[in-house]
Design a protein that fits this description.
The chain is α+β, with helices and mostly antiparallel strands. The protein is built from 4 helices and 5 strands, in the order E-H-H-E-E-H-H-E-E. It holds the Pfam family rhaM.
Length: about 120
Amino acid sequence: MCKRICQIIKLKPTAEEEYKAIHAAVWPGVLAALERAHITDYSIHHYPPLQLLIATFKYTGSDYEGDMKKVGEDPETRRWWAVTDGMQESFVEGAQGSGKDIPWWTELQEVFRFDGKA
């Protein structure tokens, strides 16, 4: 079974160019950690009027929390977050960065889905 995830966070206006540039060439180790964690079809969209970043991905594993913990323990991912977190502002009160106890990105509730015909 596939779990779909949608998350949002605010992009600092001064970081827009740098954020897009770094995501044009995501570090291979970061992508490998996502793959090991059963994450597929990952995309991030930018909505400039509100400076929103909207991330969507599919999780195909069987232990979402455990796999996300492993991503957070990956050294290259932690280095990536040290760069990208500074470009973002969390909507979650008390959040201090990716991989911490309080989520950095806000996960959104799915209220509608249409899969169409197979």
